Amino acid sequence: MDKKVQINRKRLIQRLDELAQIGALDGGGVSRLTFSDADKAGRDLTVSWMKALELTVHIDQVGNLIAVRPGEEDLPPVMLGSHVDTVTVAGRFDGSYGVLCALEVVQVLNENNIATRRPIAVVAFTNEEGVRYTPGMLGSMAYVGELSVSDARAIQGFDGSNFGEEMDRIGYAGSMEPGAIKPHAFVEIHIEQGPVLDQADLPVGVVHTITGITWLEVTITGTANHAGTTPINLRKDAGLAAAKLIEFLRDIATSIGGQQRATCGMIAFEPNAINVIPSKAVLTVDLRNSDGQALIAAEQRLQARAKELETSDGVTITIRDLEHVLPMKFDPLIVDAIGQSTKELNLPAHRMVSGAGHDAQLLAKMCPTAMIFVRSRDGISHNPAELSSPEDLEKGANVLLQTALNLANQD
Q: What H or E segment, with its residue span, contains residue 403?
């Protein structure tokens, strides 16, 4: 790559800072839950930047934003991007960095009057995080045809809101059918959200595989009774059964081993009183593994343990599927293209697995896809302390620029 053709680090950081002001929380952090007022404001700002770059902006029927820079030929575009929604208390880089890097790539090409054979599309997918509405990665799931628009619109949020109604309310229910613009290739750049690059003292990584994810909601029903007068051996304690199931998650992770992860992220008791034995516990389970068969085995072990607890603790346990995403191996040609870009920029081409889910693993079902990771300090993410250095952010963005140029001029 011509050394004069580089991303503008100052401008990229300024945009990250400006977007982070939308939904900013007292004491630090950002919150832009899907279709909240803050999400609308973040989308509005993103669209304004897209239009300022003279991109043609499309909004599809689940709220995905797709902005297109024309190519010299009317061919499927190279798509770049990520998402701008956040978890409840987030840092400023997760998702947003990928979208703003894509905009920076386009601006550099515009400023240097560089035409590409293929169009370049910048995308911001809806509801990647899955915090307000499940499934996560909803926008990309609809984009590749795995979720219908009608089913998406009917989804009820954890806060009781309706996906379709809230999308209409903030004005982001578009007319384009999801997936109408089919990419030639998709490249997503993202902070790592893990410690691998930081521990190896490497600025960027080339992602060849994304872990599979299973999300479950577990409801345990027992009997409410007085905490002081009910003998221990006569209790049907939903809270105790929940604790045993949560402890068993660690056993699942350590016994299956490898890349297995198992987490309880949410729990609620009823009646939730200090002196009442819980009659009901509702908790979530997040299982992850880069091996599909191992992920299935982890869920089977959880189901078996639930059956044991029904017998031993006198409770009833129901498990509801929230999301299943299979592990995804990325296209080796796109992985190699990113690796070649890192070498051209004199950076190590460190190849790695993502332990987090990303829109890219859905897009990989539609077109050749891979990802670029940028080092996260101490591996912290989904946290206001999330941090990647300006130098690393710049290096990653230049890898994206070089990769986009190479792919956009392919046959």
A: helix 390-408
